[in-house]
Amino acid sequence: MADFHNFEFKLIIEIDGSIHQEQIEYDKRKCITA
Predict the structure, then answer these.
(1) Are the beta carbons of 14 and 3 closer than 8 angstroms?
(2) Which of 1, 4, 15, 19 is most exposed by smallest CB count within 10 Å?
(3) Nearest to 1 by CA among 31, 12, 10, 27
(4) Average pLDDT for residues 10-34, to the nearest whole number?
(5) Is the per-residue pLDDT at 34 higher than 60?
C-alpha cells in the first residue's frame, strides 16, 4: 500500500516504518473479532 501518490507526476512513495507493522497487527485483530 502506498503512503502517497501523485498520478500527474507518476510518483508513488512507500515509507517503511513501525506504523505499518502496527497497522497490520490492528487489522489482524479487527478481522479476528469481526
Answers:
(1) yes
(2) 1
(3) 12
(4) 75
(5) no
The helix/strand/coil state of 23 is helix
Asked if residues 16 and 2 have their Cβ atoms less than 8 Å apart, the reply is no
Would you say residue 8 has pLDDT above 90?
Answer: yes
- Residue-range domain boundaries for the chain: 4-33
Residue 21's contacts (CB-CB under 8 Å, 6 or more residues apart) are none
> How far, in Å, CA of 11 to CA of 17, rounded?
20
Whether residue 12 contacts residue 2, with contact meaning beta carbons closer than 8 Å, is answered with yes
